[in-house]
Amino acid sequence: MNTTKRFFTSFIALLMCISMYSCNDTADTGENDLDDPDVVESNNSPDESDESIADTDESDSESESEDETVKELTPEEIAELSDKEYFADYFVPVVRFVAATDQHYDGSNEGKAEHIGRIFDDMYEYSANHESYNNLDAVFFLGDTVTPGTVEIYEDFFGIVDEHVREETTVRVILGNHEFDNTPDAVENLLQVSGYDSPDAHLEINGYHFLLLSTSKDTNGKDYNNVQRYWLRNKLKEADESDPTESKPIFVIQHMPVSGTIYDSAWARDSLRPILTGYHQVIDLSGHSHYPVNDPRSFWQGSYSAFGCGTMSFYEMDIIGSEGDGVFPTDNEGGWTKYNDGSHNGSHFLLVEVDANNAVKIQAYDLFSGEFIMDPILLRSVASTDDFIYTSERKAQSQKPYFPEDMKFEITESTPSSVKISFTQAECDEGDIIQHYRCFLKKDGKIIARNFVLGVYYFFPIPETVSTNFSGLEAGSEYELAIVAVNSWGKVSKQLVYTFTTPEA
Q1: What's residue 403's pLDDT?
Q2: How crowded is residue 14: how many other Cβ atoms within 10 Å of its Cβ?
Q3: Residues lower than pLDDT 50 in the chain
Q4: What is the pLDDT, as a whole number, of residue 344?
Q5: Is it true that the peptide bond before 264 is cis, omega within 30 degrees of 0?
Q6: Which long-range contacts (CB under 8 A, 24 or more apart) does 271-277 make?
Q7: Helix (H) or strand (E) holding 157
Q8: How far apart are CA 211 and CA 215, in angstroms?
Q9: Are the C-beta atoms of residues 172 and 162 closer than 8 Å to each other?
Q10: Closest to 140 in 3D by CA, of 269, 316, 309, 299
Q11: What are the helix (H) ranges across 165-300?
């Protein structure tokens, strides 16, 4: 009898404790009965501690006041904010994705395998640390992802992805040209391993349209066929009609750039240009060229917007006004070769974010240094071409580069017949880069040799100095080294001259 009484007494006490705990828990955390329309849902995230949630009434009041201030801004007031103010204080992403290209993964390169995984690891960390939006919604691989596109290599690649990807993230791989290297069944192999229904895709993520286009089998990965172009035209029309304001960006993603847009369209194709030209809200993302993402020629706005997504394997570039395409960097001193040895020296990709006002923030990330490598590209609006700022006018507006006042030359190697001279890198406008240097060796006032040295703006941290070499010199002779710097738009600095004498034999 006493046992039964104690049981019921304890049971009633337990019920009272549960009731008190539930009331206190609701009061402390702001949790509520979702069926009660009079209860306002808490803005606190599930990860916040009880201590941070149970702030003082004063701090809550201040926070609410600040939130109300942001919400009370009219569109006209927001429009008057500078880009810097807007993106610093009012840009809150609602979608975030990665565009990465040209991994050229062949199943054997451990460095490339590591970097494929780190795309996810590093961007999950970035997202988790973001103050307002913690999702990584998608990762897109823009072609030449594997080389070649065999079942075995695709299985290896997707195995790496599966080890790192989370459920929240959509992953999509499209075909470039190198998947077809001695592999005519590259399309079928991708579909078999990935489970995709088609090599092309129309995705809608958080209200934004993504149109992904693989190169076609019947062109052996070199272009897009008529069926695909018809598909793209119809999907663009569909996406456009879903937004009467024509202010939401539509993302078109393919391997090869469109001719007449980004640097360098020598690798580009004409087939998509008439389709995209009619849609100013298009943001076109491409790979293929292997050109560094932080060269300002890698982004373009004209009748729409286009951005090159760099490379995750090796760099290739030009030397403006001289060597044309097909220059491959060899070191961090400005050296280069015309022969591609396949060195894994490039690992850039783009991280793209969009907010509810359809503003777009694009950042370039370098996996070797683990850092974002240039000022973000900030697009306040794609609602009209009048809003575009990354236009061809940038070339005319660009200023000539210049050498710093504390410019230094140093002979680092010297023999009676050869010399290696390092010199301080030149400087240029914010957002521009030093593309290369022209080095002229003179003797008795006549040019006897010349070298082109790359500006090394693509390795991070960017080196402070670069070097040039000359051989076949005469012992105990005086020479002049004349140097000019050239920026990404071909603007040339004033000439700087350094005099030296070779040692006696």
Answers
A1: 97
A2: 10
A3: 1-71
A4: 86
A5: yes
A6: 271/223, 271/224, 271/229, 272/213, 272/224, 272/229, 272/232, 275/229, 275/232, 275/233, 275/236, 276/236, 276/252, 276/303, 276/304, 277/303, 277/304
A7: helix 151-164
A8: 13
A9: no
A10: 309
A11: 186-194, 226-241, 273-276
186-194 helix and 151-164 helix, angle to the nearest 10 degrees: 30
Find tokens 């955390």 and name the residue.
Answer: 29
> What pLDDT sits at residue 323?
67
Longest CA–CA span in the chain (Å) reads 119
Q: What is the pLDDT of residue 266?
A: 64
How far apart are alpha carbons 138 and 477 in whole angstroms?
A: 62
Its pTM stands at 0.84
- Is residue 401 within 8 Å of 407, Cβ to Cβ? no
Amino acid (1-letter code) at residue 196: Y
Helices 151-164, 110-129: axis angle to 10 degrees equals: 30
| Strands 465-471 and 418-424, sheet pairing | antiparallel
> Residue 127 — φ and ψ, nearest 5°?
-65, -40
Positive or negative torsion for Cα 312, 314, 315, 316: negative
Task: Say whether the peptide bond before residue 296 is cis (omega within 30 degrees of 0).
Answer: no
Give whole-number Cα distances, 279 to 247, 251, 392, 446, 469, in Å.
Answer: 10, 11, 18, 54, 50
Helical H runs in 358-438? Answer: 393-397
Instruction: Give the torsion sign (CA, 295, 297, 303, 306).
Output: negative
Residues in the chain, how many? 505
Amino acid identity for residue 479 in this structure: Y
Element (H, E) at 66: helix 57-71
DSSP state of 105: B
CA dist 268 and 255 (Å) reads 9
DSSP summary character for residue 32: -
Sheet with 496-501, edge to edge strand ranges: 446-454, 434-443, 478-487, 496-501
pLDDT at 60: 46
Backbone φ and ψ for 306, nearest 5 degrees, come out as -140, 140
Separation of alpha carbons 114 and 437, rounded Å: 34
Report the pLDDT value the prediction gives residue 41, as an integer from 0 to 100.
32
Radius of gyration of the chain from its Cα atoms, rounded to whole angstroms: 29
Classify residue 492 by its DSSP letter: B
Closest listed residue to residue 225, CA positions, set 200, 189, 195, 192: 200
SS3 content of the chain, % helix, strand, coil (to 5): 30, 25, 45
Residue 290 is classified by DSSP as: -
Report the SS3 class of residue 116: helix
